[in-house]
Amino acid sequence: MLKCNELNLQAPHGEAKPFWRDSAPSEGPCALGCGAQPPAPAPTAVPAIPTSMQDELLAAQEICSRAKTAVIEMFGHARMGRALELEHISALVDDISSSIARHPNAFISLARLKSVDDYTYMHSVAVCALMIALGNQLGLSTALIRRVGMAGLLHDIGKMTIPGAILNKPGRLSSDEWQLVRTHPLEGEKTLLAASQMCEMVVDVCLHHHEKVDGSGYPHQLAGDQISLAARMAAVCDVYDAITSDRPYNQGWDPAVAIQQMSTWAGHFDDEVFRAFLKSVGIYPVGSIVQLKSGSIGVVIEQHPDSLLTPKIKVFFLPVLNIYVTPKTIDLSDPAQPDRIVARVPPQRYGFKNTERLWLDEDMPEKR
Questions:
Q1: What is the pTM of this model?
Q2: Are 301 and 328 in contact (CB under 8 A)?
Q3: What is the DSSP string of 220-286?
Q4: Is the backbone peptide bond immediately before 38 cis, with ω within 30 degrees of 0?
């Protein structure tokens, strides 16, 4: 395993933290372009040309499809004990990063939409994208953003050692089953250490994305700055995508409700990292159902780059009359717009289904 120069350089207060265990660095270049002395140059960044939400959604759909196929293949190799091939995966991370650079909301919003059967694979893709967006918000270097993106893509590789019947169980896990699931970071570490020229940061994120800043996480009960910046980033991204996704045993939360709830979990996340995450996805992420001062209910279809409180909303429901209306887009950042958000609305309250059709610019959501 290669010692990653960037792992210590990004420690808080400029202090170099020791890695979680002593290990001799391997020789040769890392597949991600990092390594020992001297670090390889970062890939040349091509300035992104901003695109509209709808245009980027089309590009993001193609990248999501390729990403799903690649992750299924990669996880299949891990399940069979075969070596991971990272070169084409790193190119996929670059494509995801480019999509986020062109429009920060499109890919992340699309990756959140996943079927129950696709969860394990698309969760990794979604966490990759969220890590990249968070890295941008934290001002990380292009090279480091590439590495945290790869770390997000591989963070749950250890789940391939857990029987599918347990991962997809529709009810509560037994104590023994839960203990088995909790082994996936350690199993993932074994898988990644067996890969040729694996970056230390990627292994660290895989091993420690379930640690909590108050020391109550697993597998090593690390606390505070004992947890690397990359692992603290992954902790936020992993939980957000998990709780906003439909699972065999639970329906996903509305994105805005998830953000609100996560903000109350004292001791779980690093405060600075969580604030940056909030700025990257918004207080009301795309897909959030909200009620306006006028009484109308709508779905957030796009963030405003300079204000977390004034996204674009597509109004589609009047609760006072209990009727759907022809969708209408309003921009809350318009000074002439008197309306404002007054509440988050769980979709279950009114039985809303498939409201993603509204921000995907398709048909009306399904009626109850």
A1: 0.87
A2: no
A3: S---GGGS-HHHHHHHHHHHHHHHTS-BTTBPPPPHHHHHHHHTT-TTTS-HHHHHHHHHHH-SS-T
A4: yes
